């Protein structure tokens, strides 16, 4: 079928031949119907792999160290969450674990699972449910907000002690951009068309 | 973009939530479930019980918003004294200590954004229920805006968890997460789900019905 309904106002549009780059918008409500991307597969893969490397650095190294005379304290994303679990603040610990660790990871692995087979022109099982899941978890990936949280904390604690930003801050800072480039390189319409051909 | 003059609903078609494929509705829908022929997602003409679900989640969020603002967010103990800070007293602390940018960021993310979201969602819900046909395009834009801003309210939750992790025993000061943190997290999660439950196509259904 060469028609599409706007997902915000339900108006039906004929799908026009798209240029290699550009967005098609609904004529009635103005929402983006779909966005065509140049080299979507290659660009998504490149940014996602870069993102995974930064993610590993960001999660495993401490992002802040706090020095007050002889005493020094460091914290990383995982050690911070561990500490919340130890203190019994389980709902908050779970929320941070999900939104800043597990969901971003799942998002990037999901992209690899979809786009590597597309690149190699092979079919894999469960590509359709994986891509559906990818779409559903998207709003719950909140690393960029965590990054802003780190900045606010630096200001807040700067008056109590000396704060030394760690390697993970740089990794996180880059990851936010890299991840958003990866996500915007995804041409959803193209992916669904390709996944649809298989079945 | 070439458009027809009908919505999917008027032509008896259903657009899949996940992959946007147009599906023909099976004649006898009844209570049976229909699934997208391409991606297998359950099909709904409109998000199920959209208005009721959005109202319920919105009211829950507004209830949580009260303890989230009244109870302390962080409890700081230093040199034998303890100090409990609510979201607002944290904002005031930043203003008085000169970091008004940070005060503005926290005020916007924690107090203003949830409040704005409540207001916009209530307006959208009422406008659909009272079958308003005014400015549907602007209302759709408002909806898109609420969907996008909600997540930024998580900021204060993250700040609290970072502070708790960093300022632990061994220091002269100690920061603990207060009871408001949980309520505030609940506000953010419920408003996000509430915004997702609302179906902006309901705005346009009313407009189409008036024209028919």
Describe this structure in words.
The complex is a heterodimer of chains A (199) and B (212). Chain A is α+β, with helices and mostly antiparallel strands and 199 residues long. Chain A folds into 2 domains: 1-36, no CATH class; 39-198, Butyryl-CoA Dehydrogenase, subunit A, domain 3 (Up-down Bundle). Chain A is 59% helix and 15% strand. Chain A has 7 helices and 7 strands, in the order E-E-E-E-H-E-E-H-H-H-H-E-H-H. In chain A, the strands form 3 sheets. Chain A has a 3-stranded antiparallel β-sheet with strand order 6-5-7. In chain A, a hairpin with a 6-residue loop joins strand 3 (22-25) and strand 4. In chain A, helix 2 (77-86) runs antiparallel to helix 3, helix 3 crosses helix 4 (127-137) and helix 5 runs antiparallel to helix 6. The two termini of chain A are 15 Å apart. The mean pLDDT of chain A is 87. With 212 residues, chain B is of the alpha+beta class. Chain B folds into 2 domains: 1-45, no CATH class; 48-211, Butyryl-CoA Dehydrogenase, subunit A, domain 3, CATH 1.20.140. Helices cover 55% and strands 13% of the residues of chain B. In chain B, the strands form 2 sheets. A 3-stranded antiparallel β-sheet of chain B has the order 5-4-6. A two-stranded antiparallel sheet of chain B has the order 2-3. Chains A and B meet through strand 1, strand 2, strand 5, strand 6 and helix 2 of A and strand 1, helix 3, helix 4, helix 5 and strand 6 of B.
Briefly say what this structure is.
With 199 residues, chain A is an alpha+beta fold. Chain A is 59% helix and 15% strand.
